[in-house]
Amino acid sequence: MRQAKVFYKNEEAGLLTQSDSGEFVFRYHDSWLNATDKPPVSLTLPKKQQEYHSEYLFPFFFNMLPEGANKQVVCHSMRIDKDDHFGLLLYAATCDTIGAVRIIKTNNV
């Protein structure tokens, strides 16, 4: 299992998990859900108590990945399999992202 904290404008909004079976789960933190001034991280992931489940990396997070030659360079230099979208996300979306969302790998996995 791999996990990453999802930050919105440098505030932790939720947790993204990839299970050992490959399934992805996204869940907002209760504090984020209860705050009326905190927006959803994406229009495709509205704020709700229930977890989001997917067999594939959610499109919102997938669109944060580098493409083309940039993807090749990152995968080669960091030794990330080109089909390991979660691994690529953990590397590429840590800083200097377009927009307000960043992804930070948790230390407990």
TrEMBL record:
Annotated Gene Ontology cellular component terms: cytosol
Any one GO molecular-function label of the UniProt entry: protein serine/threonine kinase activity
Keywords per UniProt: Kinase, Transferase
Keyword Transferase found: yes
Segments forming domain HipA N-terminal subdomain: 5-103
A Pfam family recorded for this sequence: Couple_hipA
Superkingdom to which the source organism belongs: Bacteria
PANTHER family (UniProt xref): KINASE HI_0665-RELATED, SERINE/THREONINE-PROTEIN KINASE TOXIN HIPA
The protein's name: Serine/threonine-protein kinase HipA
